[in-house]
Amino acid sequence: MLNIVLVEPEIPQNAGNIARTCACTGARLHLVEPMGFRPTERNLKRAGCDYWDAVDIVRWPCAEAFLEAHGADELHLFTGRAVRGYREVAYGPDAFLLFGRESRGLDDALIDRFAESCVRIPMREGARSLNLSNAVAIAAYEVLAQQGFPGLS
Fold this sequence. Notes:
Elements: E1 3-7, H1 12-25, E2 28-32, H2 41-46, E3 57-60, H3 63-70, E4 75-78, E5 96-99, H4 108-113, E6 118-119, H5 132-146
Parallel strand pairs: 1-2, 1-5, 2-3, 4-5, 4-6
Helix pairs in contact: 1-5
């Protein structure tokens, strides 16, 4: 199963859009705290997402707790600091795609620790970043395309 990991997401609308992508693709969504919002029913409704019940969500108290459980698994960290493009990687069926917070991405220490697992989505020079939910969708569909869109019609 494809795993989408949001490390300290800040904007509930992005998390809602990503949850919708996970619901439509069958991906599991991992939310790593602290988050910039509380995932209350009110906040989720405000995010405009009616898909939360259709998503397998795993919550983690911090990045280290997530890494203790999955640090040896197939991780792909999405960062503008990477040299290798996201399409240059062969993704396994149980890959974990990690994305950082909207304001500053993944922590440098995490990027340095998993430097060989970092990938980037190409953009025009001078562009700061894509919207988080767009980046997740691009990455998720690349993984699924490589696998022949298992379970999707």
